[in-house]
Design goal:
This protein has a single domain, classed as Immunoglobulin-like (Sandwich), CATH 2.60.40.10. The chain is α+β, with helices and mostly antiparallel strands and about 130 residues long. It is about 15% helix and about 45% strand. The N and C termini lie far apart (about 80 Å). A 4-stranded antiparallel β-sheet has the order 1-3-6-5, with no helix packed on it. Strands 2-8-7-4 form a 4-stranded mixed β-sheet, with no helix packed on it. This is DUF1573 domain-containing protein.
């Protein structure tokens, strides 16, 4: 009985050690997930650079960045981001033709363990002359 117990404990220890050494792949971690510009005037263009780090153990490849409307334009690294390295996602929001509260969501598609991440630009667009 003692031998069976000892064998079970050893098997569990080996399994636990193996689980800890498994690769976790690329991990996309943003410093911030949203930016609020507050009140802006209709027609203003605002931009923000979201900084991220690949905290995983394999290169991060961003395959696509999708926006909710043509009012938002993203620019992202086309080359793989090495483990431990930082990258930047620059996003520009053009408020022409927009009014009121805006929440422009940007979806980042990659080979990360979470394949779709989101960041957003928030603003309140006021008519010209009201700011």
């Amino acid at each position: 009985m003692k031998k069976l117990f000892l064998l079970t404990v050893m098997a569990l220890a080996i399994f636990a050690a193996q689980a800890q050494t498994e690769r976790k792949g690329a991990v996309l971690q943003f410093n911030e997930k949203s930016i609020d510009f507050g009140d802006i005037t209709q027609g203003d263009r605002v931009e923000h650079t979201f900084v991220f780090t690949n905290t995983g153990d394999t290169p991060l490849v961003i395959s696509n960045v999708a926006v909710t409307c043509g009012c938002t334009a993203p620019n992202w690294p086309k080359e793989p981001v090495a483990p431990g390295a930082k990258g930047e996602l620059k996003v520009v929001f053009n408020s022409a033709g927009k009014m009121g509260k805006q929440n422009s969501v940007v979806r980042i598609y990659s080979n990360a363990s979470e394949p779709i991440e989101k960041v957003s630009l928030i603003s309140n667009v006021l008519p010209k002359g009201q700011k």
